[in-house]
Amino acid sequence: MRADFAIIGGTGVYDAGLLSSVDHLQIDTPFGVSFIDIGEYAGQQVAFLSRHGKGHAVPPHRVNYRANIAALRQLGVKQVLATAAVGSLKEEIAPGELLIVDDFIDMTKSRETTFYEGENGVVHIDMSDPYCGRLRRLIAETADRNGIEVKPGGVYVCTEGPRFETTAEIRMYARLGGDVVGMTSVPEVVLAKEAEMCYATVAIVTNYCTGIADSFLTHQEVADTMRANIEKVRRLFFELIKR
Ligand code: HPA
Questions:
Q1: Is the CB of 84 under 6 A from ligand 1?
Q2: Are 142 and 240 in contact (CB under 8 A)?
Q3: What is the pLDDT of residues 191-209, one digit of tens each?
Q4: 95 lines ligand 1 (CB under 6 A)
Q5: CA-CA distances (angstroms) from residue 219 to 12, 120, 224?
Q6: What is the pLDDT of residues 60-100, one digit of tens each?
Q7: Is the dihedral of CA 118, 119, 123, 125 positive or negative?
Q8: Can you tell me which atom of ligand 1 is nearest the CA of 183?
Q9: CA triplet 56, 59, 62: central angle to 5 degrees?
């Protein structure tokens, strides 16, 4: 089995939709097992991976990022389109909006962040363009052509989770230059880079972060806003794949 593109679905995205002749695969990798669906769309083989598993069973700090990216590599995937639910650090980035992530700040604490543990050499991967510039431009062009509004860039602060942030942390992240906050882009983007894939993320803003809005934040709010906006992202990804 091989695939040209992969879609990684985050919170609220548990099936690929639109794919035909879908095979459900369990792929063994040196890092563990990954569950991936492969189907066809517009003559291309597309892999779909649900980051948190069906029914959102795996919390962000327990996702086996290495197995997932290794499995995609085994399938020959070269281009990855990922979704991510994020909170906004800025008033001008509102819930319901889409944003093409172009950089990250890593605030995670306990994750396996590399394929290179020493046995296979010491490798320091370049991070000057962590999210593939070519795919980012293609996403922006595709959105424009299809009348889908998307912010062209933004810095993703990746926290360890699974708890949401304190007000003081959010104040700090905003001062550090972050635009949005999520719990999954690191190490996924780093591992994809190590695997020489072109990887991009469209973030779906589901809420204002703690202290930016004056209400409590719940996972339900995140899931509901995600559900209301995910169709835009799906359309964007499939229009891009069809090109
Ligand atoms: N913080 C962290 N992760 C998130 C948030 C948030 O406010 N919203 C969606 N994912």
A1: no
A2: yes
A3: 999 999 999 999 999 999 9
A4: no
A5: 11, 40, 9
A6: 999 999 999 999 999 999 999 999 999 999 999 999 999 99
A7: negative
A8: 3
A9: 130
Q: Is 242 helix (H, G, I), strand (E, B) or coil?
A: helix
Cα separation of the two ends of the chain:
22
Give 160's pLDDT tier (boundaries 50, 70, 90): very high
Contact 45, 2 (CB under 8 A): yes
ipTM above 0.90, yes or no: yes
Residue type, 236: L
Using CA atoms, how far residue 170 sits from 96, 111, 153, 203, 229, in Å, is: 20, 21, 19, 18, 24
Tell me the average pLDDT across 129-134. Answer: 97
CB-ligand 1 contact for 209 (6 Å cutoff): yes
Alpha helix (H) residue ranges in 20-121:
65-74
- The packing angle between helices 133-145 and 219-242, to 10°, is 90
Secondary structure (3-state) at 153: coil
Evaluate the CA torsion angle 154, 155, 161, 164 in order and state its sign: negative
Lowest mean pLDDT among 2-16, 53-67, 152-166, 225-239: 2-16
